[in-house]
């Protein structure tokens, strides 16, 4: 396809950030879930031993949250609610049934993606605050045992909820053909933009 037929959707820095988050996030999640139950301990094998998992999990977690925070700041403008979102939400049944002729136009992101974006903001903050409160031997001694217990509950609940959100995120990425290629190479075809994000396409053409 000629370059004229392509539109930049994700800049190089954002793509590098995204795929680094996927790698760092994988290590964080596998080591984190290895602490949940004794039968999950084998997951710590990704870094070698359970002891190493305990040491590395907070550092990988911080790296994941900071990189994700950078990406969320850079994508903030695209994720503001706008005039296209309510009509799209009302027509969500048509989206699920893939009746494209009945789906109102959306901009750079659809409301489903925008809701996940907000969930990621909450997870980053909750993981960072609760994780620091639980971090032995550095910060946990500064808090009461009850506060550390609450932090552990919040941290674990966020781990499960974020995993579920990521399943939805990856499902959406696989469902919309061409979206993963966009995140890999940065560009999408004009035909893709016109079909999935018509308002973004029109803004680009103005
Ligand atoms: C293998 C796993 C993953 C795949 C295949 C994937 C795929 C994608 C794709 C294709 C997009 C672009 C969507 C579009 O252009 O409309 C995207 C955006 C994004 N991804 Fe992922 N992703 C994965 C994992 C993750 C993880 C682990 C995180 C964070 C913890 C994440 C956070 C984001 C964010 C914040 C955006 C921007 C969305 C927005 O601004 O609303 N992704 N991802």
TrEMBL record:
Keywords linked to the UniProt accession: Cell membrane, Electron transport, Heme, Iron, Membrane, Metal-binding, Oxidoreductase, Transmembrane, Transmembrane helix, Transport
NCBIfam families to which the protein is assigned, alphabetical: formate-DH-gamm (TIGR01583)
Reported cofactor(s): heme
Domain Cytochrome b561 bacterial/Ni-hydrogenase: 9-178
Name of protein: Formate dehydrogenase subunit gamma
Keyword Iron: yes
Membrane spanning stretches: 16-37, 57-76, 116-138, 150-176
Source organism of the structure: Shewanella xiamenensis
Pfam family, one: Ni_hydr_CYTB
Cellular localisation: Cell membrane
Mode of membrane association: Multi-pass membrane protein
EC numbers, comma separated: 1.17.1.9
Family note: Belongs to the formate dehydrogenase gamma subunit family.
One of the record's GO molecular function terms: formate dehydrogenase (NAD+) activity
Keyword Transmembrane: yes
């Amino acid at each position: 396809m000629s370059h004229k037929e392509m539109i930049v959707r994700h800049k190089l820095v954002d793509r590098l950030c995204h795929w680094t988050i996927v790698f760092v996030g994988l290590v964080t999640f596998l080591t984190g879930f290895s602490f949940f139950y004794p039968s999950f301990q084998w997951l710590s094998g990704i870094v070698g031993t359970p002891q190493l998992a305990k040491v590395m999990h907070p550092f990988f977690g911080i790296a994941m949250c900071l990189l994700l925070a950078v990406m969320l700041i850079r994508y903030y403008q695209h994720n503001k609610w706008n005039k296209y979102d309510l009509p799209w939400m009302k027509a969500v049944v048509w989206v699920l049934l893939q009746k494209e002729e009945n789906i109102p136009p959306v901009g750079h992101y659809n409301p489903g993606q925008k809701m996940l974006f907000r969930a990621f903001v909450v997870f980053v903050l909750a993981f960072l605050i609760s994780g620091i409160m639980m971090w032995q031997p550095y910060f946990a001694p500064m808090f009461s045992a009850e506060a550390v217990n609450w932090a552990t509950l919040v941290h674990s609940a966020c781990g499960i909820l974020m995993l579920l959100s990521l399943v939805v995120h990856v499902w959406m990425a696989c469902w919309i053909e061409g979206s993963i290629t966009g995140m890999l190479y940065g560009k999408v075809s004009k035909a893709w933009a016109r079909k999935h994000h018509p308002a973004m396409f029109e803004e680009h053409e103005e």
